[in-house]
Amino acid sequence: MPDSRRLDRIASAFGMSRRATTSSPQRAGWTVGRLSGRERFARAQGLISAFYGVILFLAVSQLYEWPGHLAATHFTPRWPVFWLRWVEPRIGISIILWLHLAAGVIGVAFSRYRIARAVVFLSLLEFLAFKFSFGSVNHGDHLGVLLSFVLIFLPSGWQAFPRAPRRVRAATLSVFSGCQGMILLIYSMSGMWKVGGVVEQLLLGETPYIAPQGLAQQIASKLLSEDSRTLLGPWLIDHWWVGWPLMVGALYLEFFSLWMIARPSLHRSWGLGLIALHISSHLTLGVGFAQNSLWLALFLVFSPFRPQQTSWPNSWRTMLEELPLLGRWSQKISSQKP
Questions:
Q1: Per residue in 190-209, pLDDT tens?
Q2: Can you give the pLDDT at residue 10?
Q3: Which residues contact 116 (CB under 8 A, 6 or more apart)?
Q4: Is the peptide bond before 162 cis (omega within 30 degrees of 0)?
Q5: pLDDT of 133-148, one tens digit each?
Q6: Average model confidence (pLDDT) for the chain?
Q7: What is the spatial distance between Cα 298 and Cα 293, in angstroms, rounded to a whole number?
Q8: Distance between CA 251 and CA 157 in Å, rounded?
Q9: CB proximity list for 9: less than 8 A, separation 6 or greater
């Protein structure tokens, strides 16, 4: 890889937002068309506002479950709601539910204020801590809490447009990039954990789940243990050879996700790939992460850092060259062409 492109990647990881505030085109490999810093800033503003709109929707959709929550008496409070041990359950639960609903409205109406964004984070933390105090934990809800925490650090005036000064635009895009990094970090951690599991299985002499029949065995084990049935699970068990490349591809997507923070040309395709991973996981294993798919769409598929594509052969070539590990093979193949 040319030294200039390697330096561009390193600089992008630490200063993508700073470069995004300029209107000049990026180096080859980052963009195909022009996209001004103000345009990226405006897109980030819209996506952040949409995030708080989604939080309001989720809070309102919980109204149907309020009667069941208020009637709860037997639960073990998680640490964020430890104070429920010393208040009457119905009163404490009412405080959490009303805070959750009020924070949804506050986030939409007053997200320009840091205190309002902090209230949204606190309400999500409290509500989910109460929700998970009944034993089971849905990890698919965690990402929204983490993103709301990162967004607390948006600068004053982040909603101003088009008069926001350059430092505000840069800081806003830095925080947006931080949200992307939080999402991608979680997936890379999941991929690293799976790689560690593969190593452990090999050391124990077991069949790793990246083996040709590994995914089929996992699906069969889960469906039998839970006595359940999924739409595509039985079919994939019978056609295990289809699941092998899917399993390897899913592990590749997860493990190298954090690398995408410095590869804006891949934001859209990587986000769509991770969404497809969640859809296939639901259809085969019955494990769904609906909220994660939504956050992936907002912060990666619609990423303000992704380049405008004006020529599909060039854009696809750029994307292939940016792929971790595989990109080097693509570059070698391209360089050997006459």
A1: 999 999 998 998 898 887 87
A2: 40
A3: 106, 107, 109, 110
A4: yes
A5: 998 888 889 999 999 9
A6: 85
A7: 9
A8: 40
A9: 262, 263
Task: Name which residue leads in pLDDT, 207 or 217.
Answer: 217
Residue 114 class from Cβ within 10 Å (0-12 exposed, 13-18 middle, 19+ buried)? middle
pLDDT by residue (tens digit) across 226-241? 888 899 999 999 988 8
- List, for residues 51-64, the tens digit of each pLDDT value: 999 999 999 999 99
What's the rounded Cα separation, in Å, for the pair 174 and 160?
16
Query: SS3 string of 102-135?
Result: HHHHHHHHHCCCHHHHHHHHHHHHHHHHHHHHHC
Name the token pair of 33: 């068309």
pLDDT interval class at 174 (50, 70, 90): very high
The three-state (H, E, C) secondary structure of the chain, written as one string? CCHHHHHHHHHHHHHHHHHHCCCCCCCCCCCCCCCCHHHHHHHHHHHHHHHHHHHHHHHHHHHHHHHHHHCCCCCCCCHHHHHHHHCCHHHHHHHHHHHHHHHHHHHHHHCCCHHHHHHHHHHHHHHHHHHHHHCCCCHHHHHHHHHHHHHHHCCCCCCCCCCCCHHHHHHHHHHHHHHHHHHHHHHHHHHHHHHHHHHHHHHCCCCCCCCCCHHHHHHHHHHHHHCCCCCCHHHHHHCHHHHHHHHHHHHHHHHCHHHHHHCHHHHHHHHHHHHHHHHHHHHHHCCCCHHHHHHHHHHHHCCCCCCCCCCHHHHHHHHHHHCCCHHHHHHHHHHHCC
**Percent of the chain whose pLDDT exceeds 90:** 58
Q: What residue has token string 């891949």?
A: 266
Residue 85 has pLDDT above 80, yes or no: yes
